[in-house]
Amino acid sequence: MPYEVNGTTVESDANGYLTDINAWNEEVGKAIAAAEGVEMTEKSWDVVNYLRDEYINNGGNQPNDRNIVKAMSEKWGEKLSSKDIYTLFPMQPSKQAAKIGGLPESRRKGGY
């Protein structure tokens, strides 16, 4: 299921995850979000950028939903619940936001 972005084809696997993390940019992220039915807001991008930073700069770390809630609570200066993050990414935030961020599919089970 490749994505078409500005006249360029970006390859993905059967589940819609990019086959090459380096092919990602914000425009690709927007195309994946549109395919996922996710409206990207500033907070949505914060989550995506957090996951990308953790994966790229922290040895392939893929935070679960609980860690996302904790990190975004700190970043946004408010106490969040998992419901707040699921509002942004209804199909499991740790996986859906990672997909939009061009990261590999997580093989982890569950959000906690």
TrEMBL record:
Keywords: Cytoplasm, Transferase. Gene3D superfamilies: 3.30.1420.10, DsrC-like protein, C-terminal domain. One of its GO terms (molecular function) is transferase activity. Its EC number is 2.8.1.-. It is found in: Cytoplasm. One of its GO terms (cellular component) is cytoplasm. Transmembrane segments: none annotated. SUPFAM superfamilies: DsrC, the gamma subunit of dissimilatory sulfite reductase. One of its GO terms (biological process) is tRNA wobble position uridine thiolation. InterPro entries: DsrC-like_C, DsrC-like_dom_sf, DsrC-like_N, DsrC/TusE. Belongs to the dsrC/tusE family. Part of a sulfur-relay system. This is Sulfurtransferase.
